[in-house]
Amino acid sequence: MVEKVHTLVIGGGQAGVATSAHLQKHGVPHLVLERDRIAERWRSWRWDSLVANGPAWHDRFPEAEFSDLDPDAFAPKEAVADYFVRFAKDRSLPIRTGVEVTKLEHQGDAYRAITSKGAIEAQNVVVATGPFQKPVIPTVITDPSITQLHSNSYRNPAALPEGAVLVVGAGSSGAQIAEELVRAGRKVFLSVGPHDRPPRRYRGQDFVWWLGRLGKWDMKAPTPGTEHITIAVSGAYGGHTMDFRRLAGLGVTLVGRAGAYRDGTLQIASDLQTNIANGDRNYLSVLDEADAYAKAHGLDLPEEPDARNLLPLPGCVTDPTRALDMQAEGIGTVIWATGFQLDFGWIDLDIFREDGRPRHQDGVTDLPGLYFMGLPWLSCRGSAFIWGAWKDAERLAGLIAARG
Ligand SMILES: Cc1cc2nc3c(=O)[nH]c(=O)nc-3n(C[C@H](O)[C@H](O)[C@H](O)COP(=O)(O)OP(=O)(O)OC[C@H]3O[C@@H](n4cnc5c(N)ncnc54)[C@H](O)[C@@H]3O)c2cc1C
């Protein structure tokens, strides 16, 4: 017997949960399939000490607050996962866990999902399997004596082999992991590529508030040329601006982008000063835009001229290393905080571009009844974030309900 549902949602992270909540509001019969547990990636794909990058008043669904958490605090990752589990339970959302979809294909005018527990047919399918699906590890270093792991497998400093650590990638994950390691007494090298680093707070408001006011969460697409620029923010230790000068002050050696590996030496690009300067420029531009906005809208917020005082550049930036002799530096571990790829190999539908990303407009594909949720920039910059998924889910659930 093939099970039939009106609408099938694949993936039970925040995007799947949000989609289910809005389908329920519209009275659309549906089923969510999750291969592990609800919000599994918040539990087992992230390091032990991770807290949300945004404060609890912001990084949540509009309908439910975090219980037992100051709205200005940053929710620990387990609390984030618990939040989604509780949210689903309170609403009796139809989420079936421990079921993996291994294939999605056409079935006449509808779709058939082959799952680890049998086949399911549906008129509508929402794919909500995450913005960050497959860790990217550049195969630069071939030395088997060096332990290499992706940031999604990093847990805590004690779980790493003894010795110095090279963290590659200075987005939020790489920068936060480097800081945790150096605070734990490790010798740390951090390979810094192009990045944005907005101020954590400015004139009494968190940067997520400012990004909202400045219309940056609602941006429809990245500014051309900035697609590969990562963002370095942190809610750790109560939340602070990710300032690479401060990290160097804690003892982290900053280096440029990692290049080729030969005879035990990692070549380092000559881009460190440029990357730091562009990061500073981004930081200062947010202050400028915030000041202009405050002035234009007559906001009564305390001025903060000290925010413009940058620390002096550390020696590792003014006289940067161009080659890392791994043995001489005692580097036994490399953590690749180098991001993720999409992996839709299990979807057997003609819907993908050459780069593996689905063709869609704000989550709506040109195959009737097929939708995507939670992808980076699905409809706007906020789409892969908690509250952004909520807004996309609201819109897509409305379209599915209207389809009948
Ligand atoms: C380190 C890190 C920190 C982040 N911090 C924040 C933050 O503070 N605030 C914020 O708003 N965003 C944050 N994000 C971004 C985003 O909120 C998370 O990536 C979030 O997990 C995305 O939710 P999702 O539901 O779209 O995808 P996921 O959480 O990836 O959920 C997808 C689910 O689909 C399941 N699945 C996948 N394939 C199948 C299949 N074939 N069959 C069945 N189930 C399947 C997976 O098991 C998973 O549970 C962070 C991301 C990272 C990587």
Overview of this protein structure:
The chain is α/β, with parallel strands linked by helices. It folds into two domains: 2-133 and 342-403, FAD/NAD(P)-binding domain, CATH 3.50.50.60; 136-336, FAD/NAD(P)-binding domain (3-Layer(bba) Sandwich). It contains ten helices and 21 strands. The protein has helices at residues 14-25, 40-44, 77-90, 172-183, 207-213, 244-250, 272-296, 315-318, 326-329, 386-403, and strands spanning 3-10, 30-34, 95-97, 101-107, 110-115, 118-127, 134-135, 147-150, 164-168, 188-191, 195-196, 201-202, 205-206, 230-231, 253-255, 258-262, 265-268, 323-325, 331-336, 340-341, 370-372. Strands 1, 2, 3, 4, 5, 6 and 21 form a seven-stranded mixed sheet that branches. A five-stranded parallel sheet has the order 8-19-9-10-15. It has a three-stranded antiparallel sheet with strand order 16-17-18. β1, α1 (14-25) and β2 form a beta-alpha-beta unit. α1 (14-25) packs across α10. The chain is globular. Flavin-adenine dinucleotide binds next to α1, β2, α2 and α10. Flavin-adenine dinucleotide is lined by residues 10-16, 33-36, 40-42, 46, 52-54, 59, 100-101, 128-132, 173, 346, 374, 384-386, 389.
